[in-house]
Structures are given as C-alpha cells and as structure tokens.
Amino acid sequence: MASKxxxxxxxxxxxxxxxxxxxxxxxxxxxxxxxxxxxxxIAPGTSGCSVTELTGSxxxxxxxxxxxxxxxxxxxxxxxxxxxxxAASGGAVERLDDMVREARFPEFRTAAxxxxxRSSLSVGLTGLDRPAALNLYAGTPGAYAAGxxxxxxxxxxxxxxxxxxxxxxxxxxxGLAAERAxxxxxSRALRLLMATRRLDRAAAFAxxxxxxxxxxxxxxxxxxxxxxxAGRQNAP
Amino acid sequence: MTSDDPGLDxxxxxxxxxxxxxxxxxxxxxxxxxxxxxxxxAYVLGVLAPDAYQHDLLAQALNxxxxxxxxxxxxxxxxxxxxx
Lengths: 236, 84
Description:
The structure holds two protein chains of two kinds. By secondary structure, chain A is of the alpha+beta class. Chain A is 56% helix and 14% strand. Chain A has two domains: 2-163, Beta-Lactamase (2-Layer Sandwich), CATH 3.30.450.40; 176-234, Arc Repressor Mutant, subunit A, CATH 1.10.10. Chain A has nine helices and five strands. Chain A has a five-stranded antiparallel sheet with strand order 2-1-5-4-3, with helices on both faces. By secondary structure, chain B is mainly α. Chain B contains four helices and no strands. In chain B, helix 1 runs parallel beside helix 4 and helix 2 crosses helix 4. Chain A binds chain B through residues 6, 9-10, 13-14, 17-18, 20-21, 148, 151-152, 155, 158-159, 170, 173, 175-176, 178-180, 182-184, 186-187, 190, 201-202, 205-206, 208-209, 212-213, 216, 218-220, and chain B through 1, 11, 22, 25-27, 29-33, 36-39, 41-42, 45-49, 51-53, 56-57, 59-60, 63-64, 67, 72-73, 77-78.
C-alpha cells in the first residue's frame, strides 16, 4: 500500500514538473491544486498549503489545499501583516520554526495557535509581474527547518511560479547547445553498443560507467573511442 | 567506491562534490540525459524515483566532476546504493 501511495505522489510530482518545464499551461487549475496538495507531503505535520497573490482587490488566496490555509492566510490579509505577505512582497523566504518562541507577526501567531499550527514557511514567488508566495503550515514546531525540506519547498515554489498566469519556465543556460551536442555523440555510441552487444540503454550505459571506473576516463572519451572504432570497421 | 563499498547516494554525492543543480543538469545533458532542470532536482531530492539509466547518468555526472578534480568515483551506481 505504501508503495502505491509513493507511486501516486511520484506521478503527481512528474505531472507538475513536466508542465512547469514548458509553460504557459492553458488550464493550470488542476495542476496548481495538485501542487498545493503535494505541499502537504513536504514535511510531516503539514496541515495547510496555499498560494497568496496580489490581485486588483488586494491580497487573495488563489489556490489552497484546504480551509485551514485559507483561514490563516485571511487573518494575515486582515491584519495587513504576516509571513505570507512579507514573503510575497519581498520575494523572500519567511520561516517561523516555533510560534511559541517567535516574536514577529503577533496577530498571525495568535491565529496560528488557535488553529493548532506551530510552524510555517512562506516562499516568495519571484519572476511574476505581481507579489506572490507559496505558504506551508504545520502542527509541529520546526517542520521546515531541515535543508532538504527547504529545498523541496523551493522546488515546488518554482513549479507553482511557472504554472501561474504569467509564469515563465526556468531560463535556458547559455551552454545548452554545446552540452546537447556532446550528449548526442554519447547517445550515438550507446546505440552502437546496444546493437552490437544486444543491450538495453540502461545496461549499455552501465557498461560505459564500468569502463570509466576501470580506466579512470570519462564516458565521453569512451564513446569517442567506440565511434572511432566503428568508423574504422565500416571504412572501405 | 569499491565492490565492498556501495558508494554515496545522489544527495550525498551532491554534498561531497559541491556541484549545483544547474551544473549537474548540464552534465547529464552532456552525457545524453533527457531530464529537465527541475526534474534533476526532483531526482536528487527524492521526490521522483529515477530509473536505472537516469540514476546512473546522475551518478556518472557527479563522478566525472570528482574525477576531473583528482578524485575517483565516489557515487554508487544503480544496484550498488540503497536507492538503487
């Protein structure tokens, strides 16, 4: 059962990541709802996840996984202060590890305590034409203190940014064409190895990694050797 | 990495080499890898499970980075690490 649940989460992440890699998405509503539900799995104890955006009528929660997040966001909009507003307006990360010990945002902390929330994380969404943030709320202190948890939240925030109206894909890197050209040479060598040794792609690549370990050479060098030998054998 | 030592997993390999996700993504592209930048992060962070080929692409990218800096092959391949 656990593996089925894990597989479903994998599929949901895969669909969100694929769409985020090539926006604009024509109807992103379902994907954004999927994204905030994925937020609930980022850290144990997470009980709310939402997206705050500045609209023509002020700050609003435009996507949410549940009512708890909507209510906590709203308390911040009403007070005119809170971590989600600070993250959205500053494009920054606002992490409150323990509402009991925290001194900032007293109105929000009161609302959070009433809702049983002990820690929160708001990640500013940069790259949009308006302030926005991804918000996570948890019933346990320190839910978002771990480095991996922060990295996953940041990844999800960038996916949400790309899916929102006006969102852009991650910028291409300048070296992309050169890297792809090198990759094409290795792919050619892999196809050769697959055909001559009757291997699938994973096994052919594993063979190259074993040679790389034995010889202390890169896969690119080994691939060029393979292509050179094949060229000599095919020469008239 | 030796036959007795399964080697580092991908997150520990990232920490050991100090590579950025951007660098890892470009390296796996240069190895013929198909994954997008966000996808590479998802594999290393464990929110997506790589198949054998994708795992070994990322392991090789990390290992070649290490090789170029006088190291060996610290990251384990598919089947040698607990994740694989």
